[in-house]
Amino acid sequence: MDSVGVAADAGPGPAWRSKCPWGAPNTTSISCSLADVMSEQLAKELQLEEENAAFPEVVAVAEGPFITGENTDTSSDLMLAQMLQMEFDREYDAQLRREEKKINGDSKVSISFENYRKVHPYDSDSSEDEVDWQDTRHDPYRADKPTTTPRRGFVGKGKDITTKHDEVVCGRKNTARMENFAPEFQVGDGIGMDLKLSNQVFNALKQHAYSEERRSARLHEKKEHSTAEKAVDPKTRLLMYKMINSGMLETITGCISTGKESVVFHAYGGESATEDKVIPPECAIKVFKTTLNEFKNRDKYIKDDYRFKDRFGRLNPRKIIRMWAEKEMHNLTRMQNAGIPCPKVVLLKKHVLVMSFIGQDQVPAPKLKDVTLSSEDMKKAYHQILNMMQQLYKECNLVHADLSEYNMLWHDGKVWLIDVSQSVEPTHPHGLEFLFRDCRNVSQFFQKGGVAEALNERELFNAVSGLNITADNEVDFQEEIEALEKRNEDHVQNHGKKLSRFSSSGDPPIYDE
After folding, report:
1. Is there a contact between 252 and 362 (Cβ–Cβ < 8 Å)?
2. Domain with CATH 3.30.200.20 in the chain
3. What one-character DSSP code corresponds to residue 501?
4. Mutual orientation of helices 199-225 and 167-177 as an angle, nearest 10°?
5. Per-residue confidence band for 336, with pLDDT thresholds at 50, 70 and 90
6. Which residues on neighbouring strands pair with residue 262, listed in sequence order?
7. Residue 262, Cβ neighbours under 10 Å: how many?
8. Which of 134, 128, 131, 129 is nearest to 100 (CA)?
9. Quick one: pLDDT at residue 58?
């Protein structure tokens, strides 16, 4: 007997019998055809029923012209392409927003890809609540620049009229114009502080900024084109490299002396290209400084020198430095021919003079002011210097013009003279004055050194020059020297020739050809 039939025939009974877990469920089967099972519409309805059962709360979609499959004919290829493009644009805009946030971060200065976005009127992702200030071109931390005045020159009407000459408007304009100054001139955030500059203050700042810009350019040019202390400019460095590459110098070891007019380097000599020129084992390279601020009065020694007077007026200040080096080369050659102990000239290239080195093993000979000599050596040095001054004046026809214990070296038991670039001939308009100054320096040094037979400056001047100037005091002595120089200068201007020697007599000397 079938159990289902028994349950059906039992009729009404207790409630627990109908809910028995072992009983068959009371379900009614719905008959459907194969076409209904394969229907796509039926599948969609079943899916919606399942979704509604799983998610009972229905989310209301905002009404709008959205393109969906329910209200659009998907059989059109054009509509499908528009739907795909819209989805691609949404993803592209989202990627741009992520890139902006990644690049900007918390920075006050931000960038925006607003111009590259694909914004559609039906894009529901874009809302005003989601737009950050970083996505716009306006920076709230940057103050607005002052508005410009219209061409008519005023704004407003009646009592509220504001002209272009208004103090507040002009002050803000001047503050904004400070941003056009050079980057090196720090102006600060004047616009953000609402700073108002008067025309007088702005013009003063503008002139100062322009002066600082020119000064910076001038200092840069001076650094590139001038020889500084213990350093050389690129052109001088190239000259020294060429000397080494040619084999004339083996190597340059370093700087040994600096002065107001030059820098001296030590170098080891190489081989000469010619047989008649012998390069010493150790050389001194004297580089004359091309800066004119340390030795401003050097033109006094060269413009009135008859050897260079015709060339001085046609040269610019930098070419005068080359003439200064040439002047020392000629003076050293005269002294060497006269047998006076001095450096031997090896080569002259523009403002670089190569000479023999006074010293040994990279150690220069000490200056006379730095060496401690015995009384016999001091007396020997004094007589040697007296003899050299007479030779320099009579045989070389030169006056050292800067002779002192700083320009005399003690080497191999004798005195050597250096730094003769300022030396002039006795017929120079200030030649006798320079000689008297040299005599004063030499006399004072050896008198302090304990040399009893050291002459005073007036006696030493007469002994060196051969002039017999008699004066009771130094003032009268210098007046007679100036009178001799004036008489010689007048004779040169009248006859166009220089005098070979001075005479103590009243008549002007005669030029000896």
Report:
1. no
2. 232-364
3. S
4. 10
5. very high
6. 288
7. 23
8. 134
9. 45
Q: Give the number of other CB atoms < 10 A from CB of residue 430.
A: 18
Please give the positions annotated as active site.
Answer: 402
Rounded CA separation 343/334 (Å):
12
Measured distance CA(351)–CA(373) in Å, rounded: 35
Question: What string of DSSP letters covers 39-69?
Answer: -HHHHHHHHHHHHHHH--SPPPPPPS----S
For residues 199-226, give the mean pLDDT.
76
The token pair at 235 is: 């052109």
pLDDT in tens, 65-117: 444 545 555 677 888 888 888 888 888 888 888 888 888 887 777 788 887 87
CATH 3.30.200.20 fits 232-364, yes or no: yes
- The CATH T-level fold of domain 366-498 is Transferase(Phosphotransferase); domain 1 (1.10.510)
Cβ 402 vs Cβ 419: under 8 Å: yes
Whether pLDDT at 172 is above 80: yes
| Cα radius of gyration (the chain) | 51
Spatial distance between the Cα atoms of 358 and 360, rounded to a whole number of angstroms: 7
Residue 194 identity = D
Q: Distance (Å, rounded) from C-alpha 324 to C-alpha 321?
A: 5
Q: Which amino acid is at 171?
A: G
> Which residues does residue 288 pair with via DSSP β-bridges, in sequence order?
262
| Position 459 confidence tier, pLDDT thresholds 50, 70, 90 | very high
Q: Quick check: 415 and 408 in contact, CB under 8 A?
A: yes
| Separation between Cα atoms, residue 220 and residue 223, nearest integer Å | 5
Summarize pLDDT for 253-274 with one digit per residue, the tens: 989 988 878 899 999 998 877 7
Least confident of 149-163, 226-240, 404-418: 149-163
Distance CA 404, CA 423 (A): 13
**Euclidean distance between CA atoms 396 and 389, whole angstroms:** 10
- Who has greater pLDDT, 123 or 386? 386
Residues contacting 86, CB < 8 A, separation 6+: 67, 120, 122, 123
